[in-house]
Structures are given as C-alpha cells and as structure tokens.
Amino acid sequence: xxxxxxxxxxxxxxxxxxxxxxxxxxxxxxxxxxxxxxxxxxxxxxxxxxxxxxxxxxxxxxxxxxxxxxxxxxxxxxxxxxxxxxxxxxxxxxxxxxxxxxxxxxxxxxxxxxxxxxxxxxxxxxxxxxxxxxxxxxxxxxxxxxxxxxxxxxxxxxxxxxxxxxxxxxxxxxxxxxxxxxxxxxxxxxxxxxxxxxxxxxxxxxxxxxxxxxxxxxxxxxxxxxxxxxxxxxxxxxxxxxxxxxxxxxxxxxxxxxxxxxxxxxxxxxxxxxxxxxxxxxxxxxxxxxxxxxxxxxxxxxxxxxxxxxxxxxxxxxxxxxxxxxxxxxxxxxxxxxxxxxxxxxxxxxxxxxxxxxxxxxxxxxxxxxxxxxxxxxxxxxxxxxxxxxxxxxx
Length: 395
Known about the structure:
The structure is a single chain. The chain is an alpha/beta fold. The chain folds into two domains: 32-166, Rossmann fold (3-Layer(aba) Sandwich); 234-394, Rossmann fold, CATH 3.40.50. The protein is built from 15 helices and eight strands. The protein has helices at residues 7-13, 20-27, 42-45, 64-70, 76-86, 103-114, 136-158, 164-186, 197-209, 212-227, 251-259, 288-298, 308-324, 339-356, 372-394, and strands at residues 31-35, 50-54, 95-100, 124-129, 239-245, 262-269, 329-335, 360-365. The chain is globular, with a radius of gyration of 21 Å.
C-alpha cells in the first residue's frame, strides 16, 4: 500500500510528550493538562482554554532514578513516567489530573504532587476518586468528584469556562474525534483492510496526546484518504488477532506482532479504542456532566471492577470483539507487576480458549520491549498454532 500522507508526521509527534502541536497550543496560551487513565474524562480537559495530554514516556531507557523512589517491583510504566518527569520531560504541564485507579500511576502522580518535580509555578495535581462499582450511588459519587476535583479546580485556578454550554462544545469536538477514529478502525473488519494495526495504533495515540483542535484536520484528511486507499492485492498476513491487555502506548509492539505474520485488527487495551472511542450521548434533560460520568463508568470494561457479572461480561465482550473483527486468535499482554491486568490476563488465557474456543497467547512484558527476540519467538509460534488450527478445521 502507498504510505499514508501524514504517517511520518504522526510518528514524529509521538517521539516526545511535548510535541510540535503541544508547543503550538501552549504558545497560544492554552493550558496543558496531563492524565494517565480512561477514568479521567479527556473531554473535561479539552474545554476551551485547555487541552488534554495522555502521558507517555517514549524512547525510555532504564528508570534508575524512579526505581529509587518507587522500587523495582512496581510497573515499569509508572516508573518510566516518573523518570521522564525527573528528566524534565513534563515541565510543559500546567496540571496533572490524577485518578485513584491504578496504584502505580497513582504513586507516580503523588510524587509529582509532593516532590516539586515540574518546573512550572502554576502546576498543581488534583486527585479524583473513581468508584469500584457502577450503580446509581457510584455515578453520583463520580459526578461529584469530577465537579469538585476537575471542573471547580480548572475554574478557580485557570479561569476555565466550565458551564454546560462549554461542556457541550467539548463533547461535540470529542464526538467528532470518536467518529473519525471509529470510522478508520472499522476498515480493519474487512477481509483485506486498507490500514495496518500499526498505522491505526499511531493514529489513535496522536488523538490522545495532541490538542484535539490541532490534530482534527489531520485526522479528517486521513479518514478521507483511506476511502480510496487500495490495499495489497492479497491479504499480506497469515492470520488476524485481537490485541488486549494493560497500558500499551508503543506502536512498535504492534509492529512486532505484525512482522510475525499476525495482523492486529482490534485494540482492546488501555490507550486503545475498545472501549475508549465511543461517542458521549447526552439525553434530553440530562446534564452534560452526568452524561460524561455515566459514559465512563457504564462503558468501561476495566478489570478494576470485580463483581462476578462484570468479570464474566468482560470475557463475553472480548469474545464478541474477536468475532466482530473476524479474528483468528487473541493476544493478551500485561505489563510486569501490573496489579489488575496480571489477574485478568491469567483468567483470559484460561477462559477464552475453554469457553469460547479462541486461541489465546498470554504475554507478560515490560513497558520497554527490550526482549524482542523472545517475544518474536512467542508470536511466531502462536501464529503457527493458529494456522494449524485453521487447517484442521478445514478438513
């Protein structure tokens, strides 16, 4: 396939958290608001006058300084973020909008709050408590938390307009991004998609890490380009897989899987689109904040929710994604020492093959994929096992 017009530009944007578009928005007087979790609604951070940046630590090395503060038995992702902050990589931030969800990222954000790491006199950290259930009491609690620890803080400290009219404007822009990303992602359901999993991963990440109003023109143009992009004459991969699991902001991991012959057709992981790029529906008579709170609680399949029906529902959802995207198998990956996804990955590796007949490859990895040779061997063996299964079923 011919190269996507903006792919190199997108790849360059992902080389630094403080990328070209972030710098442009800052030069225009916008406030940069960092966050790490889906449960901090990015739409609230994209109100007029500010913009959201989902934090990453691209091109990370050994997090020696962060390990001193957080120990080597915590998730490498949280340590990599703290290392990047200590290096000065997040000094562009005006605030960190934290959530008490993942333990390690919560610790990272506590360090930002208490260690005076960010060299910005206006910088502050605010923590939002996220419920572990999805009932009405939980929705009410979450809505109050978002009001007190996000909207009120932005209004008081930066003078941001947090009215319902401003929220509706932010929701409209957010929904356009979701429509475009979903439209692009749906091409992967085709027998011979005009976009690879790696390319989609890059596009999804720039939509999370760049100011929406600046990245939207490039997303619109890319969506138009894909309408006429011709795929390879024959499907160039040996099988199709769904990639699920913990935080994954490394397109090179997706590229590694695809170099072994498995096209990644769906992204069911943190920083992915399933869930993550569903539009927010504000019903008649409903407040925008209530709609946002319900959307993020009811629409999440995060493994931090432990009720049995939700745990079973996540397996069914994952099986439905495999079927919907016509995938041949599933790769589920968790970061080492990931509190929630270590359990979830273990259960997925047992239940998906047993109850749904889905070939499953279970991987534990570091945030920085140094052991690519070992991973390549695992993925190649998995692709071969999927091919053998397909041959046996065809007899």
